[in-house]
Specification:
The chain has 238 residues and is of the alpha/beta class. It has an eight-stranded mixed beta sheet with strand order 3-2-1-4-5-6-7-8, sandwiched between helices. α4 links the parallel β4 and β5 (127-132). α1 packs parallel to α2 (39-49) and α3 packs parallel to α4 (96-123). The protein has eight helices and eight strands; from the N terminus they run βαβαβαβαβααβααββ. The chain has one domain (7-236): NAD(P)-binding Rossmann-like Domain (Rossmann fold, 3-Layer(aba) Sandwich).
């Protein structure tokens, strides 16, 4: 699938990973819709990209907001919005409203956005969807935010189950599973750690955006999750 000339929606695009993906897709020739609740960051990203970008304020926990966002009928969807991994309290201390809000943002929103994008993409001749998971969703170790890690694990499994959409709708759904990425905030947090705790280098944003572009453009891949570990090359989860 060619990126040039396509309309791409990137959720959580105001800063960090989402901003980097939006900038990269615009460089590849896409018209990008930046969706985020952060209006200041969203406007800044739009200014950085220029005429190829439009910012839409959208709270992805609101079904109506998701539906309104997807009404633009994109050919590319990057479900990047998420977060809350370090907010306290977490499950089981948090009340149900707090931990279900995390599930809504990190799992339900990308599921709904994907569902709403499918038929318009099919009618347009196909499309590509990339989910953004996290290494918090891998393994069997404890995690400070059970609801966040559970949602990110579910995104990986969801992606695999949607592989048949390539044949039924012409839509390929794939997933990126990054470790600690070198965003502006991530670098600051990393450098604030004692030197003994820093360990492996962070995942470069350029590596992450390269993988996103590969998953969008490679028509042979569907249902794939690509792990981006710190200190080593990307690898396909099997």
């Amino acid at each position: 699938m060619e990126i040039e000339g396509k309309l791409a929606v990137i959720t959580g695009a105001a800063v960090g990973i989402g901003r980097a993906i939006a900038q990269r897709l615009a460089l590849e020739g896409a018209q990008v819709v930046l969706a985020d609740i952060d209006e200041e960051g969203g406007r800044r990203t739009r200014e950085l990209i220029g005429p190829a970008a439009e910012f839409v304020r959208a709270d992805l926990r609101d079904d109506d907001a998701v539906a309104e966002l997807l009404a633009c009928r994109p050919q590319i969807l990057v479900n990047n919005a998420g977060g809350g991994a370090v907010l306290r309290p977490c499950f089981p201390e948090a009340d149900a409203g707090r931990w279900t809000a995390s599930l809504d943002l990190n799992l339900r929103a990308p599921m709904l956005a994907t569902q709403l994008a499918l038929e318009p993409m099919r009618q347009a001749g196909g499309g590509a969807i990339v989910n953004m998971s996290s290494t918090a969703g891998l393994g069997f170790e404890p995690h400070v935010s059970p609801e966040y890690s559970a949602a990110k694990a579910a995104l990986i499994r969801l992606t695999a189950t949607l592989a048949p959409l390539r044949e039924s709708h012409g839509v390929r759904v794939n997933c990126v599973v990054p470790d600690w990425v070198a965003t502006e905030r991530g670098i600051a947090e990393y450098e604030a750690l004692p030197s003994a705790e820093r360990g492996l280098p962070q995942v470069p944003l350029s590596t992450l955006t390269d993988v996103v572009v590969d998953l969008i453009t490679d028509d042979s891949v569907a249902g794939r999750s690509v792990h981006l570990p710190r200190g080593s090359a990307p690898r396909v989860l099997e």
